[in-house]
Amino acid sequence: EFQNRQLVMTAWERSRNREPIEYGKRTDLPIRAQRESLPVFQMRQQLVDAIRDNQFMVIVGETGSGKTTQITQYLDEDGFSSKGMIGCTQPRRVAAVSVAKRVSEEMGCRLGDDVGYTIRFEDVTSPRTRIKYMTDGMLQVEALKDPEMKKYSVILLDEAHERTVATDVLFGLLKKAASRRPDLRIIVTSATLDAEKFSAYFLNCPIIKIPGKTFPVDVLFSQTPQMDYIESTLDTVMEIHINEGKGDILVFLTGQEEIDTCCEVLYERVKTLGDTIQELLILPVYSALPSEVQSKIFEPTPANCRKVIFATNIAETSITIDGIYFVVDPGFSKINTYNPRVGMEQLVVSPISQAQANQRKGRAGRTGAGKCYRLYTESAFLNEMTPNTIPEIQRQNLSYTILMLKAMGINDLLNFEFMDAPPRSSMTSALEDLYNLQALDDDGRLSKLGRLMSQFPMEPALSKALIESTVQGCSDEMTTIISMLSVQNVFYRPRDKQQEADNKKVQFHHPYGDHLTLLNVYNRWKANNYSKSFCVNNFLHERHLKRAKDVKLQLESIFSKLRLPLNNCNGNIDLIRRTLVSGFFRNAAKRDSESGYKTITDGTSVTVHPSSSLYGKDYDYVIYHSLVLTTREYMSHVTAISPQWLVESAPHFYKVAGAESESRKKAKIVPLFNKFSQNQDSWRLSSIRQTKER
Ligand code: ADP
Ligand code: MG
């Protein structure tokens, strides 16, 4: 619990310079009056009637008008749930949890009873559940077992304007399900103006607009381009705090680290102001925060005090914070981008779109006339930002998505009804990826292995290693490693005790790399009875470790459903590393200088991330989990391997060049580009031609 919480508490506590105060529940209005004051309440009957009369429906409304929390309840009150659950998808985990919590409070029930939520590796529902919030990814997983969505009477695809891959895929799947089930209702909600497009896709269904009350927002552009947006952000916040009238501030940053830093630095600066200026509460919001801390942002700001919230783009539309009069928008967000040419996915800080900028601006005009400080020039807004955000499906790795579609029997990928089809190159690259992992056979059909892989909600390289581990006899170790990889960084590194934290971390370091280091951490925590004091003493995030434990349990239950064995190899490090190679052989790199590596597949220059236990070590061959692009291309989660494992695990992908003639020492591992692309071309064409004819 404590570390993230501690950060919030200290920021909060220090800025108040005394014990944190429990503000308790909103007391300004009783729940019923709050519900009835929302704009959507005026439309209640019209909405319910329209949903009864139309199979598809698009609902557009300002953020905060009550779409997510109210419409599900109206449908429930009107009896829709007697015919099946009311499902509501969210692109973000945090939003699903926070909204489910809010609705259970409004309905006066325990979370998980009548109202529940499902996110990856966490299911808080019961057989009684009538309203279920979930991530779009989880509904996509359900479609695998139940393509007709028989459990549901209504499905709300919420926040559709976000255009996540899962929502885009669900458009197609639900449209198909609805054609077989005339009683099923599909509602798409959006906070922006894509409504016409959604309606056209869903057979020109009706669009209902919820009139929102919004106040004008003054936009202030930066006169000159800002070199350091963090610095200008902090300056702007200070300036607002000192010079402007009442009202809270919302700042959009790109991620957790940036937000934590800003909170700390701002705190130090505010301290220098002394008592002459009113107090400033500093709160971070990002998805890794525990939900108790997040709910603090919904509490009304105490009198004589201003609140500043540093948030990721989660606060653009997914959650609504009342009382914001000032928005500070540096103009960036972190997006997952896939480069099909090199087959890599990267988190990159990129400029936002004009639509996003306007959405951010709108947050300042919900309670009264507000101001939006754009830390970029007007000309950058007009000339450098794209009008709309590019749908994820057009920029992300589709391997997992295509594996799911194949597992649903959807082979005809070219004719799948995508609202915006992904580029053909990224589809073929995903197919290639799955073929290389042997999830697809030579004809492009799902293999037995591929079917098993599709049962695990994770990237195919991971599920491949997981299934291989059951064969190799190290699935206990592999489930631990994969669970640890799927949670937030477990190492806690507070700014004022970095050296101490680093010294503790080194004690867990495994000489062969980060995967085994993670295994070490987990096993030693387990050996200490999963104790909290062990985490505190060793600078580990207990909350993240607990989550890894839950994930491990979930994986084990999938194992038992699929009758896969859970076996332990007593920490046989070669066996574990070889098994990892079976999933990650594509992510291999060879050392080519003092500290530099080159990826084997395309020769990209990469280095070991400084946080890795292999930093400064000199192994010749490594595999990595992902590449992180910051000032340079870093490999994160790196493990040293023996090069012949590449050829042994993936003889269809690598060969040893020059081994015949020269000494073994000079032998080089090279990708089988020639053979590979020849094979792939004929296979690609034939499988595409086949699927077209079907
Ligand atoms: P929309 O989906 O249209 O953006 P919501 O249904 O999410 O709107 O929110 C409606 C209102 O409920 C907002 O004014 C918001 O402040 C309030 N609200 C939502 N979630 C919470 C929460 N967890 N705690 C307190 N209030 C909340
Ligand atoms: Mg909403």
UniProtKB/TrEMBL annotation:
One of its GO terms (biological process) is generation of catalytic spliceosome for second transesterification step. One of its GO terms (cellular component) is U2-type catalytic step 2 spliceosome. It comes from the Eukaryota. The keyword Repeat does not apply. It catalyses: ATP + H2O = ADP + phosphate + H(+). Keywords: ATP-binding, Helicase, Hydrolase, mRNA processing, mRNA splicing, Nucleotide-binding, Nucleus. One of its GO terms (molecular function) is second spliceosomal transesterification activity. Its EC number is 3.6.4.13. Its main location: nucleus. Residues 233-409 form the Helicase C-terminal domain. It is an enzyme of class 3 (hydrolase). The keyword Chloroplast does not apply. Residues 48-211 form the Helicase ATP-binding domain. It is found in: Nucleus. This is RNA helicase. It comes from Lachancea dasiensis.
